[in-house]
Amino acid sequence: MKNRKTYNELIQELFRRHPSVQTAGFGGAAYKPGLAAMQDFDAALGHPWQAYRCIHVAGTNGKGSVCSMLASTLAATRGPVGLYTSPHLLDWRERMKIIHPDGHFTMPDKAWVEAFLTERTSLLEPLSFFEITTGMAFLWFASQGVDTAVIETGLGGRLDSTNIITPELSIITSIGLDHCALLGDTRPKIAAEKAGIFKAGVPALVASRDAETEPVFRAAAAAVRAPLHFADVEAAADEALTERLDLRGPCQGENLRTVLCALHLLGEPVSADALAATAARTGFHARWERLLEQPEVIADIGHNPPALKENFARLSASGRPLFLVFGIMADKDLDAVAPYMPASASWYLAAPKGERALRAPLLLERLRALHPDFAMEAYGSVAEALSAALRDAAAVSAALVYIGGSTFTVAEALEALNLEK
């Protein structure tokens, strides 16, 4: 057709007309709480998620890793598995993948996306970006005949767009203080929102117990008569397999334990080889991932206080000269992150693109007030900050460059390094 829009034009229009929370924040049209619109959209699409088995995963940190591990091993034992996660790094289609038994993954081809968007213009008009993406993923999985889909929540659980499904297992990975303005300002309040994914009679698995959140999970499970399990009680750590994982990071041992417990509850065998090769089989990146060797460059998308605390502790424990490229969103609790920042590091501050990012001069100002003795400098872009860090690190023996603070900081660094992830 003469006036047919190209794939790139359609995607740009999608972001313009339906701004995402990741780039525009939680105000205006980007965030639409409630399930009514998503339920109507799902009905119009024919309830596609009912064509396959689902596993639903929520949590503050670790849910992406748990989803990817599950998808990798289930694909080896069940057949093709849909994997729905967010956000993406470089290609928007990264949010929806199919993991195949032979160990490769596919994303929807551009022609399929074009048809979906052009044939449903009026249907999509009132929806949020995440609602559209969720419905698209569910329909694409059905069209490709997946056996199972592993579905990650976008925000919280109770009111998340993905919470229209009835899964065969509900999983909660961890509870930390993040998105407090929307989910609550205490861990028990946040736990209650995450527990909103529990369904009547559906087994629920929580990664670990603690005095603050265990009563919340027990009450939520009892309210819907969901059998409740805790992975730290029912599964043992597997240190040997943890060492084999191509997903690296401080919490991957706990994530693996949760996955092993989930597989037991599902009655599925463990494919150790598929678990070990999770990143390679699912295209899951930037979880303590080494991008370059000389100088060594590590990227991690951990972006809230609990995740950054773990990452900074690991960096400090390395004992190596540290060069940290750091950018953070304005709605994150910088005051809660600051106490864990390594004092001996050189800090290269930058703001990734997007309305939510904390501008680099303001980030520098706030951090100087908190850490006046730190070596810090603000740069005009993530690419500029990374270039300076690489230049300085190259002159220092055993230097370690870390990129983090935000998914978008990492994504722009990948673009600057011209690494296709």
Strand portion: 5-15%
Count of discrete alpha- or pi-helical segments spanning 4 or more residues: 20
| Count of discrete structural domains | 2
Main sheet, how many strands, which sense, barrel?
8 strands, mixed
Q: For the largest sheet, list the strands in their spatial order.
A: 4-3-2-5-1-6-7-8
Low-confidence stretches: none
Radius of gyration: 21 Å
Q: Quick one: overall form?
A: globular
**Proportion of helical residues:** 40-55%
Count of beta strands:
14
Q: Terminal Cα separation, in Å?
A: 33 Å
Mean pLDDT score: 92
Give me the CATH superfamily of the largest domain. Answer: Mur-like, catalytic domain
Looking at the structure, the CATH topology of the largest domain is UDP-N-acetylmuramoyl-L-alanine:D-glutamate ligase
Class derived from helix and strand content: alpha/beta
Would you identify the CATH architecture of the largest domain?
A: 3-Layer(aba) Sandwich
For the record, the CATH class of the largest domain is Alpha Beta
